Amino acid sequence: MSKRIFVICMLDSIHSARWLAQFKDEDIQFLLFPSSPHRRIHPQLDNLLRLESVARYQVVPFGRFFALPLWVLDKFVDNFFRGKLASIFIRTFQPDILHALELQNAGYVALKALEKAKPPGLSVITTNWGSDIFWFQRYPKHKSKLKRLLKLSDFHSAECNRDLRLASDLGFKGTFLPVIPNAGGFSTETLSRDVSTTASRKVIAIKGYDGWAGRAKVALKAVSGMVEELQQYELTLYSTNLTTKIKAKQVEKKTGLKFRIHGKGALSHDEMLELFAKSKIYIGLSQSDGISTSLLEAMAMGAIPIQTSTSCCDEWFGDSGVAVEEISPPTVRKAIRKGLDLAKNQSNSEKNRETIRRKAAVRKVEAIARTFYFF
Predict the structure, then answer these.
(1) What is the CATH number of the domain that holds 345?
(2) How many CB atoms lie within 10 A of CB 194?
(3) Among 309, 312, 311, 336, which Cα is nearest to 325's?
(4) Which of 56, 112, 119, 220 qualifies as a cystine partner to 79, CB 3.0-4.6 A?
């Protein structure tokens, strides 16, 4: 008999699409409920909805149309409307499992739908994405919701052991699921491809998002003080938003450094891998993160990673990468110099690639992921 799984998730997210794609050969009926306001469905998820596979994927009726208006209304009434609607679909679909992919949107909708009347026999899985617990636990209102949500959860998963410990600190008493990357693993083809030696690489890749979490502008301030050291490199910004692009143009004018700039979503997954395969170092700065997908991709392609310690980077590299302890230009400049120094030794690159082969190969990650729904 088919498993019936009600998934609350961001329909526009590549991470949702990659997670769900791991189960296309399983006898599962998925009913997807939108947790974000976007009417757009990610192309890879849209492909799953059209795919003839063993698993069946379906969005709740009119899901893409009510996502935006109800999200706006729920900003003022604490997820009342989406929670109520989700509870109706849960009663009619009668799932074996409810899975909230991410906490501040999907998880809080699940909390509103189930807190007063959780159906008997329904198992609830909550999955921590990136900043969900590490960052939001510092705010009293969010901390209260997280505690209530985790109390409601039977199973909890996260991308790193740090976030499992934080869930325990917030009172989770259920079963922890294995730690794996939420966006799936790397194919054998990707992990076996030949890449350039770090000594021959002339690109420095910088994650270009700057917002409530991203700190790309700090990276730009850091490199602006390293003009002579970095003149020989091609500085490439990716996933860049407007404020970062403006700052990059200012740095170019002031220092003479030149940036190759790619906006958010401008590069395909294959193009991202190609960028990292050409990069000597990768720089990702953020106030909070889980396992950064960019970090894993950079390691897989042999670039030396430079990542803020507010992520889970310490669980993935030791002395073959650089954990940035303070998000400030002087500290980042020091980290860049150390990363360039590490790149002189090819064994650091090989060590990082081997870590990804061992911990994030697609077959291994998929095999573990499939245990989540068959307990």
Answers:
(1) 3.40.50.2000
(2) 6
(3) 309
(4) 112
